Amino acid sequence: MNQMSTVDDKNFALPKIRGTFSARIIQEIGTGSTKRKVVQSFLYYGEENDNSEIILRPLNDSHIPSGPEQIISKDELLESFTPEVELYTNSVFPAMKELGKTLAKADRQRQLGNIFTAEMEYNKALNIDENNIRANFGIGLCYLERNEEAKALDIFNRLISLDAAFGKEHKHLFNDFGISLRKNKMFSEAIEFYSRALNFSSDDENLFFNIARSFCELGKIKESREYLEKCLAINPDFTPGKKLSAFLNKK
Questions:
Q1: Which residues contact residue 6 at a Cβ distance below 8 angstroms, ignoring those fewer than 6 apart?
Q2: Average pLDDT value for residue range 143-171
């Protein structure tokens, strides 16, 4: 169905579903003699996950998956959605590929220290998909690198509202962003950011440690100890945590 992944011939694994799908909703509007039916059509990008569920995201005007995702079963996909193979092949897949190239170029420029070039590329990506997690994190890191606090706060407020920003696939990005907040002495924002991440990963000693360190920077030793204890309860051998514990004991 549309684009398929490779098949493991040895185990005869079925290819995973990946492609573009449409759904129609019929609604009745008006009353009496003005009553009529209206058909609305919606387009989605769908991809099968490792649990054999289908992750759907709506397509924006640039034919890019954007916005909140929903998870449905294969049966529901087959019953309620229509494959749009031509649209996927001619528009969606090329648009996603081009966006991926833009983000890769932006990441590469940021890692090389070419912050202004990286910002330009991230902005290109955001013009295509304003909710793109990678682009938002990337441009936020650019602003923090240049100590542009007001712009960084705008990105912070956008990211803190996006559940997808704290998914496991973006873990290295939100870690980098949180550390950059702390390095820029935006300790309260760092605490809020890491606390939000705890809602999605409550067994990560790094998150508890970074909150503890941010509280320590604010001079809130009691709160710092509280989160440090949770960090070391998860991983008693966590070296940065043991160093911070020794520092706090001197206090």
A1: 15
A2: 91
